[in-house]
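Allow me, if you will, to draw on your knowledge of protein folds for a short while. I have a record of one protein: its chain in single-letter code and its fold written as discrete structure tokens. I should value your view on which stretches of the chain appear to form regular backbone elements. Thank you for your consideration; the sequence and its tokens are set out here:
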Amino acid sequence: MQPVANKTPVFILQHAKERLHPKGTAKLAQLCLSQAELIIGKEFKDTLTRIQRDYAPILLWPEENAGSAIPSATEANRREGNERNDNLTRTKPSALIAIDGTWKKAAKIYHTHAELHTLPKLNLQGHENQYHHRKSPSAEHLSTLEAIYFGLRELSHNDIPYHQTLNGLLDAQQRMIEHWHKNLELHTP
């Protein structure tokens, strides 16, 4: 598959133990996107500092009070009391940050990194999980790849040709699922 030329860079913070899970979608997302970085570990302070230096990051996180519309850099700065930095921040391009791991491990990464708490969060409620191969608290809790897909669509608003290009992400996830089922059938007596 040719990588999708995503307009917004994606940074995936993956819990160290998650990389060993055969049904994870973070690696697939990295392979399917032209601008994606997979960072594996438990401590991401230096990575977050680097991302915030170069970008105006938006966190994909299922928080009840997260907005469906992303605040502008100016609004985010005013909320944080950084009005003097408006011109500096406004020139930074957006980037998406996704946390990858079991729900418990992802929550631990979020709660142990105060830098993540101050980021604008993208609310992806209303999208149903099509990836039923791992446990999730509800049908609205998405796989990492699905969250990235819907996040990129949300940021691109009504760019229909781009949305069609992004569909390649879900197609890749579906092919991966079909591959697992096929292998399971071959190895089941």
Notes: The chain has one domain: 10-187.
